[in-house]
Structure formats: structure tokens, C-alpha cells
Design a protein that fits this description.
- The N and C termini lie far apart (50 Å).
- The protein has one domain.
- The relative contact order is 0.12.
- It has 1 helix and 2 strands.
- Strand 1 and strand 2 (42-47) form a beta hairpin.
- By secondary structure, it is α+β, with helices and mostly antiparallel strands.
- It is 55% helix and 24% strand.
- The chain has one helix spanning 3-29, and strands at 34-39, 42-47.
- It has a two-stranded antiparallel sheet with strand order 1-2.
- The chain crosses the membrane at residues 6-25.
Length: 49
């Protein structure tokens, strides 16, 4: 394998690790919550968890 090919494989692996880290971080930030709305129709409570 040539040196340029090795660099390309390493770069692809680094990009994959960074993308996986960002995805994992975003998944951890999505916590269940409750949304309460008051409008003309009354009170609405929505939960996403």
C-alpha cells in the first residue's frame, strides 16, 4: 500500500470517529421533557419522553 493510500485510510478513520462522537453527544443532549402551552383552547401538555 502506498503512503498516500495509508494517509487516506487514516483520514477516513479520523473523520468517522469525529462524526460518531458528534452523534453520540447529540443523542445524550436529547433528554425527555415536558412542554406546557396555554392558549385560547386551554392548557396543553406534551411530553417527549
Amino acid at each position: 500500500m502506498s503512503r498516500n493510500g495509508l494517509y487516506a485510510v487514516i483520514a477516513i478513520l479520523v473523520v468517522a470517529v469525529v462524526v460518531f462522537g458528534i452523534y453520540t453527544y447529540q443523542q445524550q443532549q436529547q433528554r425527555p421533557g415536558i412542554e406546557v402551552r396555554v392558549d385560547e383552547q386551554g392548557i396543553s401538555i406534551d411530553g417527549n419522553g
